[in-house]
Amino acid sequence: RAHRSRLSGVRFAHPSIDHGLVACHASPPKLDPNASCAVSTSARLSYAPPATTRVSSIAFGPHRFRLSIRATPTRSTPPRVTTVTNPKMASAASAAAFAPMLVPGAASARRSYAKNARVLRAAPRSVKPTLRAAPGGAVRAAAVAEKAPAPAGTGGVDRGSGYEVHKFGGTCVGSAERISGCCDLLIASATSGVKTFGVVSAMGVANKGEPKVTDCLINATEMASTRNPLYMDELVKLERKHQTTAEALLTDQEEYDRYMNSFAEELEDLKAMLKAMSIAGTSTQAFADFVVGHGELWTARLCAAAIRCKGFDAEWIDARDVLVVTDAEDGGVDVDYEASNKNLDLLFDRLGHNKAGATRVLIATGFIARTPDGIPTTLKRNGSDYSATIFGALLIAANISIWTDVDGVYSADPRKVKEAVCLKQLSYNEAWELSYFGANVLHPRTTLPAMRYSIPVTLRNYFNQAAPGTSISDNFAVKTNGDARPVSSVDTSKEQVNFITGLATIDDVCLINVEGTGMVGVPGTANAVFQTVKDAGCNVVMISQASSEHSICFAVRSHEAASAKKALSARFEKAIAAGRIKEISTIDDCAVLAAVGKNMCQTPGVSAMLFGALAQANVNVVAIAQGASEYNITVVVKNKQITKALNAVHSKFYLSKTVISVGIVGPGLVGKTLLRQMNEQLAELKSDYAVDLRVVAITGANKMLLSSEHETVLDLTTWESLYAGGELSQSADMEKFTTHILDAGSPNSVIIDCSASEAVAMQYKGWLQKGINVVTPNKKANSGDLKYYKELRNIQRNGYTHYFYEGTVGAGLPIISTVRNLLDSGDRISKIEGIFSGTLSYIFNTFGGDAKPFSEIVKVAKELGYTEPDPRDDLSGMDVARKVVILARECGLDLELCDVPVQSLVPEALREVESVEEFMAKLSEYDEAMTARVAAAAKNGEKLRYVGVVDVKNGTGKVELKAYTSEHPFAGLAGSDNIISFETKRYVAGQALVVRGPGAGAEVTAGGVFGDVLRVCQYLGAPS
Question: Are the C-beta atoms of 696 and 713 separated by less than 8 Å?
């Protein structure tokens, strides 16, 4: 029956159209449920439509009632419209009363307007909050899935009989080819004897630039409500898209005609409604829901027809004939399971679906439902996924598969973490936690229907059907190295347990801190804070409060921060003025990182591991939150550090691997040798020590080589040719070089300076402050300005970044580490003396042993590569002096380079000679003087050695040519070896600790640097 209204209706008509328009009243009129229509439609219609026609639209006014009746069109025949008008028909004023009647096939919606219509209430939720005691007496809340009883009664759906529900998203049905693939999947399931039930979304797109059906419907609604005539263009796109898809899929002419007839009729309904919106210049949520739900209708009908064209039985189900929902407090909807089950039973009985069983594929519309009053509505966010789990619960299905375009749920966002892995299994609670923080998981509400009967929900990739996907269920298992097994079968003392299941982030949040001594012990303060934030329309993402009650800190989205702070300032204006609340402050540009996992529960040390990983990556934690359930640890960091933090924690917990981005400065002889040594050890480091060194940047003085988006790590076998002139080679830019290493995606980074540049050494401070570890054989930083050296050491001591420089003194010899070990163990060093230059060691170990003059030996040393390109750099003694200064500072002496007297071996007359060639030619003129010194020493049974001395007791250092008796360890040195003696409280004179070995050459120097790199890895968590 149609209802009368106490208000007179308003009729909109236009001569250019021959069908009626639905008018919208500003407020719904009060309807008299007992009023009957003045005339019977069947008695008053002067046109009796054939069975192939249907009522397409209704227009009404104070004195007339008009129906437009359209004949079923075919491919060659356009739709025929007949208008029937009877001035004796009763008026009806409310479009809200007639809108449900426009729903194609919605008999249940029309019945809801009948006399004595019954209003159905939503059934209670099956997931109830319960309180239970946690260890230590704490009380914690948890969502407990209580298995709902199966609906009672006979007939209808054979529930629990093994139905498999498959939901296909818009991308999966984005083209005729993809829809055909979905149909094949459903047919294959059914032919294997499984009862198969499909749920489909509106058509998406297969290629960029194509129209999305839901977007077109939304655009048309918005345009019509703002009187934008271009809404008709959106309908044209819809018609073209569905017609071409149907032509490709529906090979049977009758199926095609039936589908296109229904589509054309519904499209005319939409035109009528949108025209009314355009004239009124407004819309309602009910109208918008009605319009936007058509995409699913068209897809479901098309899929069923396509399956029939493939020779298999299929029927489509309009979810609005089954699902009854009510609005929820949180903006979503709750399902009335009692009414929905009853509707599904009636539908199965009427259409024989239960009897057909596995021989018939059923396909339902996703996203749409109806209210208890019969008004079409939607399931809001993630509606199609929600539809699938609701139907799964109504059927008590064996499994629900959600087909998307990803392999499943990842351990972290794979766009930010390259090592993210697809998880095989998740618990419902873990899925809830991850989805809240924006991970690509089901919406929390979506899992509720499945939890009623503990139905597993599997996320699968339609485009990679070989992938097993991620199963979300209630089965608890401990995850070990990617495999999920029962807790009882895992020995945590022998196996690596993945304590954290997944990581998720929320970017662009703002922390708001309400602080003041007047808050301590005052009941209701927290309530006042959060009630004020709620009234301001802001959503709280995270809350943190210390037990002192001195402050409350919470996070909101950045765009809501100003409104929240303004509201709080107004609410606590008097308290702030009185000093009870000190301030309401904000920390902008923050991000939230959540670590989620069941295995964290009651496991000591998980928090320590998380915060240790963040500290090692030099990520500062701004705020912390963790609930008593222990399923989630949440931290807030600065937005610019969120990717680094995410990679650091993921690497620590999930990979059990130390991943480091490496940058090389100075690809000279030592740099090249280091890269070769690293390349030779990469595989072994990964397999035996879980260390993954990724060289991402190499720079010299003039050009540099950076990894690309596709080649994220430089190939150490081909880097030289690329550096010399490849596509990736570019002009050197130290700032760009540094940024590239930081943005490489690894949780840790190290820069290795193999140059001798003072300018590069001045970059160390900035690198360390940015969290980049530094390894270097370059002596300029540690022997340069004393203040700068102390700053570098303080950064190292006070932070988690590492600065290693073993190669600055002894190349590959453990000189710096020996000093550290002596001092750390409580020993006191009194004197360090040694031959620190491999070049000068070779020269004086050779000089005097044969008849060769001094200049000739220097020439041979240069030819052998022992000296610098200009031998004066070695003979001047400044290199030894720098090593003396470095060792003196390690022992606690505040020496500058100028404080160390140096005995230079370069004749004063030759110090200013411009060319190396001229110096070498004239050096022979001074051979006689050097020969005389060697002869004098030999006469006394001594040998000359060029040494550096650190006199810790007297606080001095010096570099000199000194004679030693033949019994002294220094006198017995050979080749280019270095030798250093340590006199300490434990190692006294005559029994000094001596370190001896090769102290020069690219191989040993590079080896010493490589050793420092591995020390960095060990400090970052790699096994020793």
Answer: yes
CA distance 835 to 570: 74
| Amino acid identity at 535 | D
Beta-strand pair 360-365/313-317: parallel
For residues 263-274, give the mean pLDDT.
94
Reading phi first (left if > 0) and then psi (alpha if -120 to 50, else beta), residue 521 is in left
Q: pLDDT-based confidence at 440, cuts 50/70/90?
A: low
CA-to-CA separations, 213 to 109, 202, 235, in angstroms, rounded: 24, 6, 10
What are the CA-CA distances from residue 299 to residues 190, 563, 922 (Å)?
20, 43, 93
Instruction: Determine the residue type at 394.
Output: L
Evaluate whether 658 touches 747 at the Cβ level (below 8 Å): no
- Tens of pLDDT, residue by residue over 136-159, are 333 333 444 456 776 765 568 999
Tell me the pLDDT tens digit for each residue of 741-759: 998 878 889 999 999 899 9
Structure tokens at 31: 């309807």
Calpha distance 393→343 (Å, rounded): 14
**Higher-pLDDT residue of 975, 696:** 696
Distance CA 884, CA 831 (A): 11
Q: Report which of 793, 884, 899, 898 is spatially closest to residue 831, judged by C-alpha positions.
A: 884
118 secondary structure, DSSP code? P
CB-neighbour burial class of residue 839 (10 A; exposed 0-12, middle 13-18, buried 19+): buried
953 is catalytic: no
CA-CA distances (angstroms) from residue 181 to 175, 177, 186? Answer: 10, 6, 9
Range picked from 496-510, 609-623, 860-874, 940-954 for highest mean pLDDT: 940-954
Q: Report the 3 state secondary structure along 336-369.
A: CHHHHHHHHHHHHHHHCHHHHHHHEEEEEECCEE
Assigned token pair, 408: 């499943």
Q: Which residues pair with 948 in a beta bridge?
A: 834, 959
**pLDDT of 770 over the 50 cut:** yes
Q: Beta strand pairing status for 658-665 and 703-706?
A: unpaired
83-88, Cβ contacts within 8 angstroms, sequence gap of 24 or more = 83/18, 83/19, 83/20, 84/45, 84/46, 84/47, 86/39, 86/44, 86/45, 86/46, 87/63, 88/38, 88/39, 88/44
Average confidence score pLDDT of the chain: 81
Closest CA to 747 of 655, 613, 609, 591: 613
113 or 478: which leads in pLDDT: 478
Question: What SS3 state is found at 449?
Answer: helix
Residue 35, pLDDT above cutoff 60:
no
**Quick one: which H or E segment has residue 774?**
strand 773-775
Name 23's Cβ contacts closer than 8 Å, sequence gap at least 6.
9, 10, 11, 12, 59, 60, 95, 276, 280
Residue 894 tokens read as: 């505040």
Q: Most confidently modeled of 18-27, 33-42, 139-148, 825-834?
A: 825-834
| Dist CA 912 CA 579 (whole Å) | 73
How many alpha carbons lie under 13 Å from residue 319 in its C-beta half-sphere? 41
Active-site residue among 883, 943, 958, 962?
883
Those residues whose C-beta lies under 8 Å from the C-beta of residue 1021, and which sit 6 or more positions away, are 612, 613, 616, 652, 658
What pLDDT, on a 0 to 100 scale, did the predictor assign at position 46?
31
Question: Is 927 buried (19+), middle (13-18) or exposed (0-12) by CB count in 10 A?
Answer: middle
- CA distances 92 to 75, 98, 108, 378, 862, Å, are 37, 9, 21, 26, 107
Beta strands in 107-216 (DSSP E): 127-133, 139-145, 164-168, 196-200
DSSP 8-state code for residue 908: G
In the block, tokens 């991402």 appear at: 696
The edge-to-edge listing of strands for the beta sheet with 729-731 is: 729-731, 703-706, 691-699, 658-665, 748-753, 773-775, 803-804
